[in-house]
């Protein structure tokens, strides 16, 4: 070991939000007592809401990256509903809501208006849940991508329509129980082989920047927001946000579940430019998918009363999906 | 509610009006837990506390925290058997933190930089306290009494202070300049020491000196003997005498083939010393199996590295000119060794008996209210004997006869004596709940294996009494300190502040930790799960 090497080690490294042993600029925005708190207290999200957490992480990082010059456009969904019961708002940044499906188009308009007024230093973020992104807003989003409008579109993916009562979306994973894919019959829950891989669809548009992230790795997520705000044109960020209500998981486990999604390989975390993957976040401590599934009531039909796997066939198919991700993205490579 | 007529657009309000804390059924609360290292330390050191300061490079502050409990860190950083590292939670991740190496680094830094021990307090009712024995227990007791503002007097039968640290621990484990430095620094606080002063009658010495209280810290200095038929020319000595004589002018002559009888740390010290004195063969004979050896594994390992040989399940039945008769043993169902009747002769020039040590407690014979059973002085949990104002420490009251235990006893006896002198009874301060590994979230800690301490080359180890184990340089010591998980004690990583979906954690600034904003905390418990060191718990909401 060289003498210089030890000093690089800082106890919690870059895993925790902050670290008193490193310079302030190496800590996350979320470790800063003066962070924007774009989404402030008093919002009506459920206990342990991953989406509330993800939205604050993304927007606070974007606020720092743009020096506070930011406008957010929101699709309909939980994030819109729980933050703005009339006449209250939890948003401490300029924020607009129009319809469920038109957030990409509204954001395009905002960016065009700013450009027309010579105010293109003000940046635009559009955000939606997975329903507003992969289903209802998909046409408008694809158009925004194709025109390369100067918007960062952020999808907070909690894998179903949670606000309206946990109905299946195009982002609901196989075997998950929702109100519309009940845990009944020989193949309970959402069918295999359907749904949309939205990051791949975004990459297929040839975007300048596509990235995925989870609420479990804050440094990684913030770095991706910073990178996205360095670029112009259409960009896409897909953030994995567990939902204790829809997933029937413990509120305290929100970040743990996000971590296990990545560590099992089910949710690959990567960056891509112009359709090519440029960097992946490797798995640090690989876990089998049942570690991830077992914490969630939406997969309870795969497990016995004692917590052991009752449907090895289905769990095996889910494991195969994780293994395919690991192979495809090289998630185990150092 | 609003006074405006129906259908009029309202002013924009903030969600801060919505106190979501009312949703909560359980609340998170910050706690401090007892780190396992602190729990295990016989000297009662706040290890996590001084490592926390060392992590920031605040070495002097770290050393000050350390010497608040233990005035001899450079010594401790060399001779302690490290129960802290055995208990360390990091061992479940990769390897235990090298606590002892950091302690030594701090101790050596203090010597190099000349940091002074804290000045004694001024006591409104300062008393004179006799401390019998200037070994680790006596020195520690005197130090803590002096810090509290009392005036201790140390009496020791040997020519120099240090007790078994000088007359029992070989130089290759504890160089004498380190010992002298730390003992002198301690005595300079205003502690009287008289060497070559053997106390034969404690009651009389206390009365003559007009002492208000006394601490007995005599150590176990008498080597146990076993009857072994031996010819006139056979050389038999006990390990305590051997190690003691190493401090004299003339090193003892042992011959080429030295047998050490016993399986404790003293046996290892004796065998390794014999090697260094020129023995070509040093053989340890022990009647049980290696697993049952009382010696600490590190000592056995180092002895074997140096060429000390071991013969298990054997007893010595006779010593004759140039040879030893050994009988083979086997363990019975209860694990006790039983003779087999099979004998073997082993060439030998000298036999060193390392069969345990006893305290010479004859000085207590004039104190009928002090009870002694099987060589152990009877004490309460405040270490006070049956004689009011007389406290007993170290080897005289404990099976765990280590420097670290002795230093812990010294501190406890000093505090108990201070309480007694003030007409109070000392009580154990309340302890925090233990910070088990299960309380931690190990995900957050960076992977980092332990830094190994440099060791003297083997060739020089067995030919000289140079110190075997080296210290860490500053960069490595800092690295090692930063491997600490800070179990059960907030280290201000900002994670709770970062992970709260309701912004209900308030960051109070460096050194001031955090506070929950119960107006908005919904009680989800993410902060509890994601606290790396287990310093947050959920408690039921009352009312």
What does this 3D model show about the protein?
The complex is a heterodimer of chains A (334) and B (543). Chain A has helices at residues 50-65, 78-83, 103-116, 130-135, 138-147, 198-204, 218-230, 244-247, 254-264, 289-293, 312-329, and strands spanning 70-74, 88-89, 95-97, 123-129, 152-157, 209-214, 235-240, 270-273, 276-280. With 334 residues, chain A is an alpha/beta fold. An eight-stranded mixed β-sheet of chain A has the order 3-1-4-5-7-6-8-9, with helices on both faces. In chain A, β8 and β9 (276-280) form a beta hairpin. Chain B is α/β, with parallel strands linked by helices. Chain B has a five-stranded parallel β-sheet with strand order 5-4-3-6-19, covered by helices on one side. In chain B, strands 8-15-9-10-11 form a five-stranded parallel β-sheet. The chains are: A alpha/beta (334), B alpha/beta (543). At the A-B interface, α1, β2 and α9 of A face β1, α16, α17 and α18 of B. β2 of chain A pairs parallel with β1 (13-14) of chain B, so a sheet runs across the interface.
Pairing-aware structural class of the strands and helices of chain A? alpha/beta
Q: Give me the count of strands of chain A.
A: 9
- Distinct helical segment count of chain B: 18
Number of separate helices of chain A: 11
Greatest chain-chain interface?
Answer: A-B, 55 and 57 residues
- Tell me, briefly, the overall form of chain A: globular
Q: Determine and state the CATH class of chain A.
A: Alpha Beta
Kindly report the name of the CATH homologous superfamily of chain A: Thiamin diphosphate (ThDP)-binding fold, Pyr/PP domains
CATH-defined fold name of the largest domain in chain B: FAD/NAD(P)-binding domain
Question: What fraction strand of chain B?
Answer: 15-25%
Strand order of the largest sheet of chain A: 3-1-4-5-7-6-8-9
Instruction: Provide mean pLDDT of chain A, rounded.
Output: 95
Would you tell me the overall average pLDDT of chain B? 93
Whole-number tally of structural domains of chain B: 4
Strand content of chain A: 5-15%
Summarize the main sheet of chain B: 5 strands, parallel
